[in-house]
Automatic annotation (TrEMBL):
Pathway recorded for this protein: Protein modification; protein glycosylation
Residue numbers binding Ca(2+): 607
EC number(s) recorded for this UniProt protein: 3.2.1.-
Provenance organism: Cucurbitaria berberidis CBS 394.84
SUPFAM superfamilies xref list: Seven-hairpin glycosidases
Active-site positions on this chain: 205 (proton donor), 343, 460 (proton donor), 507
Pfam family, one: Glyco_hydro_47
Cofactor(s) recorded in Swiss-Prot or TrEMBL: Ca(2+)
GO terms for biological process, alphabetical: carbohydrate metabolic process; ERAD pathway
Name of the protein: alpha-1,2-Mannosidase
Length: 614
């Protein structure tokens, strides 16, 4: 059979087909052709334009002299007096020549059948429709507010009041090719004044959502939309002010007004690992784009503390959830986790290596990651026992006892589902095939949890039964399910559900996205579609989509209290966090886009799914 695959670049016909009518004709033509030649496949279905790999308008080397913000009519954070100024700044590696190992599967050599392509487009359109509906509601009912309340249709302030959803959604608008909405949003963002926000700010959230959102949108415009860089610099200067402490560790829960008032600040005694160690990607990118080394310098000081203490903790290789930032001492606390308050500290190690293009000074990130994952495999992944004897690994938490023994609690959090994607990325980046197998089995545990939860959605936190020895490489243990031995469970496979909410979180689809792009197995698209349908159908409200109070309520198909289609209406919570638009729907969408679009070899995603240009 003739292979009619044509590269879009060599298709003059493409530019002429731009009206809806000829699009329809083309569709019919392809459809008939397909009937006639079932093997026929081609790529002239409309697909978004790809970015050139290194557009001239984004700096390859950091600008010199550096660009600084010149705010008009807004508060200037550069004017805050620094009590503990830095004398000499750590410099970004000058030029990066090293080519990183290839991350994505080689899709180019494949030729998906036409029906598959059409299905992909249809699914992607459904996901975009959901996004579009939510965005429309936000615009109408909660414009410039932090969050839309999806049931009552009002809004609330959660992260400083600068429009968290607005900034967090910018890049998704671009990626989904909603350019008018994007431009309208940029105009609104240009008016934000990052002056002391309401009360205490969570600087981790401020960084990953706002700063990440601004940098990503700027990168997507090929560094042409200068208003976005301007805002990123203004916000970067604000965040930088939270690092003005005696040991230069950041104040992670920060009252901006105190800094404005000139008060001397100290970092917290009771800090949280993820909030300490999740600035590196955003600050590195900001220094790359501006040439201003203060940001990169600030994050380097933090990473040096992590590196020095990595082997001195109660589980050498891992850092505990609780850390004292004042001393700074990361060795005392006994709780270790892949879930809340720890997660992105690990995720940012390979990703920062990537954004530094593996430069000599980035090898530290690589070795820290390898040391950490070695310990994770040993202590934080376990093989659960399920009625169907699924070959999966679940990410969990562990506590070190007085006698030094390490006890896993076998709790599984939706948040910790990022682990599969991280292992998959790391496997390719550092070329370790065994990590891809861990990635697969960890991702499968999240897929399993969706598939086997009573209503097809994984709860926020639950425990699972574990083999007596959970070491993933221990083949001498019999993990076969035995109903006589294993005690009663709340639901088959779910021992106890600790927190039954679903908060529209992205981590499971995030890992499915990474696995799809890295292995090229179309099975992950089917998994994603099933997940999307469950989530959309159960979270949809009059205006947008809402969190669910209890995803484990038994399904009632009899119609009692159910909706027309026989699905029980699960009780919803009047909440739609900005990550629904920034992350969840973006990852769903990208699973069904041309794999060259936002390729993992050209972009690195921050922990809020904001892609930065490599
Ligand atoms: C910031 O400080 C500079 C000099 O230190 C001064 O010229 C400028 O007016 C100040 N800007 C604001 C907004 O206070
Ligand atoms: C920590 O230990 C690992 C081996 O377990 C080693 O490769 C790494 O270099 C050590 N890190 C430091 C900072 O000494
Ligand atoms: C691959 O990863 C495993 C587990 O972390 C480790 O033991 C092994 O040394 C790694 N192999 C290479 C070639 O780095
Ligand atoms: C494997 O499991 C057996 C039985 O629980 C245990 O005796 C052994 O120490 C474990 N080996 C490893 C490497 O964890
Ligand atoms: C593992 O346990 C199951 C059920 O307890 C049993 O049927 C099976 O024979 C065991 N397998 C091995 C290899 O011991």
């Amino acid at each position: 059979m003739r292979n009619l695959k044509v590269s879009p670049r060599h298709l003059p016909i493409r530019s002429r087909i731009n009206t809806r009518f000829s699009g329809l004709l083309l569709f019919i033509f392809i459809y008939l052709l397909h009937l006639y030649h079932p093997q026929f496949s081609l790529e002239i279905l409309p697909s978004p334009l790809r970015f050139p790999s290194s557009p001239a308008s984004c700096p390859i080397i950091p600008p010199y002299p550096s660009i600084t913000s010149s705010p008009n009519n807004v508060f200037n954070w550069r004017n805050i007096t620094q009590h503990y100024p830095v004398e000499a700044f750590e410099q970004l590696p000058a030029v990066h020549t090293k080519t990183l190992a290839r991350i994505q599967h080689d899709f180019d050599s494949e030729n998906p059948p036409l029906y598959h392509e059409l299905m992909r487009k249809r699914r992607q359109a459904a996901i975009k429709a959901t996004f579009s509906r939510c965005w429309g509601a936000y615009k109408e009912l909660a414009w410039k507010q932090d969050e839309l309340l999806p049931i009552s249709g009002s809004s609330k302030t959660t992260f400083g009041g600068w429009g968290a959803t607005l900034v967090d959604s910018l890049d998704t608008l671009w990626i989904m090719n909603m350019k008018d909405e994007f431009n309208e949003a940029v105009a609104a963002v240009a008016e934000i004044d990052f002056v002391d926000g309401d009360g205490e700010l969570n600087m981790f959230e401020t960084t990953i959502r706002y700063l990440g959102g601004l940098l990503s949108a700027y990168d997507l415009t090929e560094c042409k939309e200068k208003r976005l860089l301007q805002k990123a610099m203004e916000l970067g200067d604000m965040i930088y002010a939270s690092f003005d402490t005696p040991n230069r560790m950041p104040v992670t829960r920060w009252v901006a007004a105190m800094a404005v008032g000139g008060e001397v600040q100290e970092a917290a005694q009771q800090g949280v690992l993820a909030e300490l160690a999740s600035f590196s990607l955003e600050f590195t990118r900001l220094s790359q784009l501006t040439g201003d080394m203060r940001y990169y310098d600030a994050t380097t000081r933090v990473i040096d503390v992590l590196a020095r203490q990595q082997n001195e903790t109660r589980i050498p290789g891992l850092w505990p959830v609780g850390v004292n930032l004042q001393t700074p001492d990361l060795t005392k606390d006994t709780l270790f986790s892949l879930g809340t308050m720890a997660d992105s500290a690990y995720e940012y190690l390979p990703k920062t290596y990537q954004i530094l293009h593996g430069a000599a000074s980035a090898t530290q990130y690589k070795s820290m990651y390898e040391t950490a994952t070695e310990a994770m495999i040993q202590h934080l992944l376990f093989r659960p026992i399920t009625p169907d004897n699924a070959d999966i690994l679940a990410p969990t938490s562990a506590r070190v006892q007085r006698d030094g023994s390490i006890v896993r609690d076998h709790s599984v959090q939706h948040l910790s589902c990022f682990t599969g994607g991280m292992f998959a990325l790391g496997a390719k980046l550092f070329q370790n095939a065994s990590h891809l197998e861990y990635a697969r089995r960890v991702t499968e545990s999240c897929i399993w949890s969706y598939d086997n939860a009573p209503n097809g959605i994984m709860p926020e936190i639950f425990t699972m039964l574990a083999c007596s020895s959970a070491s993933p490489s221990n083949n001498s243990v019999n993990c076969t399910f035995n109903p006589l031995v294993w005690p009663a469970q709340q639901f088959p496979g779910f021992e106890t559900v600790i927190d039954a909410r679903y908060m529209l979180r992205p981590e499971a689809i995030e890992s499915v996205f990474y696995m799809y792009r890295i292995t090229g197995e179309s099975r992950y698209q089917d998994v994603a579609w099933k997940m999307f349908q469950q989530v959309e159908r159960r979270t949809r409200t009059e205006f947008a989509n809402a969190a669910i109070r209890d995803v484990t309520r038994k399904m009632d198909r009899s119609g009692n209290g159910g909706t027309e289609d026989g699905w029980q209406d699960l009780e919803k919570v009047d909440s739609m966090e900005s990550f629904w638009l920034a992350e969840t729907l973006k990852y769903f969408y990208l699973v069904f886009s041309d794999p060259g679009w936002m390729s993992l070899d050209e972009w690195v995603f921050n922990t809020e799914a904001h892609p930065f240009r490599l």
